[in-house]
Amino acid sequence: MIELEDNHELSAKNSPEPCANSNDDENIILDDSNIDIDSEIVESSEELIELFLFHLAPSTKSFVFTMNEILKDQTFKNGQIDPIVIQYVESLKKARELYDDHQRKAIDSLYKQTIFQKNHNVEEKINQEEVAATCANFAFSVTQISSELEIFINATTSLLHYNESPTKSFNFLKIWKINKEKILDNERNQLIDIDLQNLKNETFSYKIWKLTKFTRGVDFQFGFRVGLGAFILSSLAFLDSTRHIFNEWRGEWALVTFCIIMNKSLGGTAMTIKWRFIGTFLGAFIAYMVWTLFYPHVILMAIFGFIVSIPCFNIILNWKSSNAFGRFILLTYNLTVLYSYTMSINNIPFNSDDDWEGGENPIIWEIAFHRYLGVTTGVIWALLITLTLFPVSARGRLKNGLSVLWLRMGIIWKRGALKKSLDEYNHDRLEGLRGINECHIIMNELRLLLKQAPMEIRLKGPFPIESYNKLMDGTEGILDAFENINSIVDFDTSLNPIESIVLDNLFNETNELQNRVFLIFYMLASALKIGLPMASDETSTEIAMDKLLTKLSDVRRTVESRREIGQNTGIENADFVLFYSYCLVTNSIVYELTKMMKEVVNLFGKLDEETLELK
């Protein structure tokens, strides 16, 4: 390891600048090329990582230094793109070529070790493949970062060229041209194949039920609640018997408050009620005091208004969970004081029939009280409508949403990240995982529901927000793993015939592993959906993973043996990175699922005799 640190130090001192001559890069990175990779003898799986780092670490550090210098440079200066960005393209390309060459040599150095050629027991073979998978995935991840950086540089370069000679295009008007990327996204969002035969056999009543499906959606029900509630409240202003009450007690404030505070769920509606009541009261009281003490001295009122705004802005900026409190205070204060001042300068006459709240001599306590009463009426009316008309519980929707999300994610993984199909040229290509975008949309809504759920009344006690937070974090970790394997697949979706054959040989093992992972997703979704305890024995994926790693090792050794006798295999050791990454991603998914199962056990317990009793 001392030699490795020396190489690191040498690389750090001589790392190239982003736009330096590529020959300097080559001289620096290739200093260790005289080392014979076959001379290193490794006796255990743990030493494989040290050997891999010995060969790849110097070039990795130089490559990362180049990317770091590009990212640190101010590409945009004073709103303009620095022309030096053009030089970054070639510099990054050459640096990556050098890194890719050392990456291949480092991976080859692993598989040329004698421990891969010996007949080990299954456990040792699995350990070796796991180490190789980790090393290969790390090397590929660095390459992938550089590819994304290259995309950014190319986009910046294109923008630079456009700014130098701007051109107009009307291609967006050609609506008859379909974007292939949109077609790919639609394909990926389709999780379950549609059975056309079942569509033909649908009954008339079922078709009617499907046509009215939109009425069962939360968005429709929310819109219906708000519309009906606003209609009933505003109708008081149009009836002769109630118009004077609506005008005198400022019903428009109640109507505005109702529309603002309404939310899709009960928890969302109740989320800011406490702070709205307190903030409105404080704002009205402060407005009454300021008007009573300083009117008609406008300058003093303006100064005190500025003083009031300071703590309000502090609340808005720093109170993360209840920053609306500051807005409510400031809004009520401004509406009360400014409305009263507007009445005083417009010489509005006092009329007992319409009651202008004092006219040109505003009755400030009455204006402030009407404001507070209007807000209170709007809040109470919003709660009443939310509770009685298509009520939606944030807690119930959160549990149902998590169950649906886990089921979707299970189906996504069951279809397979390595699922292949034929492209337009009749060549095999990888499809990747479908439907991830929809999962992110659901996840965003669930995060919002998680904030609203504790605001609902719960007789069983406080809402277990910590457990649900852990479940949400684990779910996001799995979605990140989905994106990880998808980014690797999208890097090169094409498969040569040999890679396709290797994939076919691994089909049974990958299929068994995916089915077991799907079973865990299904168990979690079912337990959360119906609130039943988890099974005492958790589903294990270790055996399926061991089978896959063993089979992968056998396939790779077969390819290696054919290469040694001079046959063209059409596949290199570096080409196994996809399969290694798949194994690592699966392990990370299972790790998150295991933690999530423990949280579900904390929520509902484990299966026991009481669960099986018919009560």
What is the fold's blueprint, element by element?
Elements: H1 2-14, H2 22-29, H3 45-72, E1 76-77, E2 80-81, H4 85-111, H5 114-117, H6 122-164, H7 180-189, H8 196-200, H9 204-211, H10 218-234, H11 243-248, H12 251-261, H13 266-270, H14 273-294, H15 298-318, H16 324-345, H17 364-388, H18 394-415, E3 420-422, E4 428-430, H19 436-452, H20 465-491, H21 497-505, H22 507-530, H23 542-564, H24 577-604
Antiparallel strand pairs: 1-2, 3-4
Strand content: under 5%
Q: Could you spell the SSE succession in H and E letters?
A: HHHEEHHHHHHHHHHHHHHHEEHHHHHH
Q: What structural class is derived from the secondary structure elements?
A: mainly alpha
Largest sheet: 2 strands, antiparallel
Describe the structure.
The chain is built from 24 helices and four strands. Helix 1 runs parallel beside helix 3, helix 3 packs parallel to helix 6 and helix 22 runs antiparallel to helix 23. The longest helix has 43 residues. It is globular. The N terminus is likely disordered. Helices cover 69% and strands 2% of the residues. It starts with a helix and ends in an 11-residue tail after the last helix.
Characteristic key phrases:
single chain, 615 residues, mainly alpha, two-stranded antiparallel sheet, 24 helices, 4 strands, 69% helix, globular, disordered N terminus
Can you give me a brief rundown of this structure?
The protein is mostly helical.
